[in-house]
């Protein structure tokens, strides 16, 4: 009876509602190895499920969320150690088989991270930003990072460009503020993201000391728009995606803090 009660209580663990933070590749490798060790220990008599379950489930949510962010599936298919027990008790009768099975999953996950590191990935310096106003855009940027991580051919790279353009359209809507419009001028149309962006720079990045910043931001905007057609390569998609992140995150820094 107690074990059933424990299992039901787990469903209402408040930590289930926590959004896992972004973890870099080095941190993912360490967490992956730690999780692998726990799985093996439980499956070979080294640890009891009850003593490891809470930490295992927290780590599983973090691993799964970050692997999805990078365009990969979960490294281990068991959300809980009870699920792992159910699997190995039916499919893997010996300790050796359990170790080898987990080792294979771990090595496959590490190989994906190594491949990703070798080809480079789009970096979002504010991946864990929780500003309510920008929440919707944060999700779109996370999707862009994932999109690029899984891009392998021209169609995929063009999809990265389209997603970059859509993010900047949403960004334009977010920064559209009638107060940015000079007296006597007509406000740009709601969907004219570039015009709102120019007004934003004129207000929040004005002056000679920010001339280079304005030029860089405008160049990044143009770059992010160019990867939707033509004979493009991986480097073009990477540049477009990274330029999009740069525009949005720099704009956030330009806004005055409350």
At a glance:
This protein is mainly α.
Structure, explained:
Helix 2 (25-43) packs antiparallel against helix 5, helix 6 packs antiparallel against helix 10 and helix 7 (154-175) runs parallel beside helix 10 (234-254). This protein has two domains: 2-119, no CATH class; 132-254. With 258 residues, it is mainly α. It contains ten helices and no strands.
Essential attributes:
single chain; 258 residues; mainly alpha; 2 domains
In percent terms, what proportion of residues is strand?
A: under 5%
Low-confidence stretches: 1-8
List SSEs in N-to-C order.
HHHHHHHHHH
> What is the overall silhouette?
elongated
Decide which structural class fits the backbone: mainly alpha
Number of domains: 2
Mean pLDDT score: 86
The number of strands is: 0
- Tally the helices: 10
Q: Tell me roughly what share of residues is in helical segments.
A: 55-70%
Write the layout of secondary structure elements.
Blueprint: H1 2-10, H2 25-43, H3 49-69, H4 81-91, H5 95-119, H6 135-149, H7 154-175, H8 193-204, H9 211-224, H10 234-254
Helix pairs in contact: 2-3, 2-5, 6-7, 6-10, 7-8, 7-10, 9-10
